[in-house]
Amino acid sequence: MTKAGENPTVSYCSPKNKKVTKADIPAKVTIDGISCKVTGISDNAFKNCKNLKTVTIGSNVSKIGKQAFYGCSAISKITIKTTKLKASTVGNKAFQKVPAKAVIKAPKAKAKQYKKILQNKGLGKK
Fold first, then answer.
1. What is the pTM of this model?
2. pLDDT tens profile 8-38
3. Regarding the domain delimited by 9-120, which CATH topology (the fold level of the hierarchy) does it fall under?
């Protein structure tokens, strides 16, 4: 948990199993009866998850750590529901070695901005 009090927040650290094929980072989780917003994805969270095919990033995520999806060579679809990402909050090499053919879905208002950010953080130019 990163922040306690009235509005507790958490970061997604890593999957229980590195052989996971689908990752869904929710907007909120409940821990010990306390509802917490998921506001980040930790550094190296999915690093080298070779079987990961689809990723959904929840609407409260505002930070993606460095090398979060580095080396996930099977990803074919990334759905981004958040509008809170900025170039400064997406870590270096976060999407390095993700296939250039991967389809990215983002909120319409942020699509161009996210395309530029993700390409600068390692995603292929296609």
1. 0.89
2. 899 999 998 889 999 999 999 998 888 999 9
3. 3.80.10
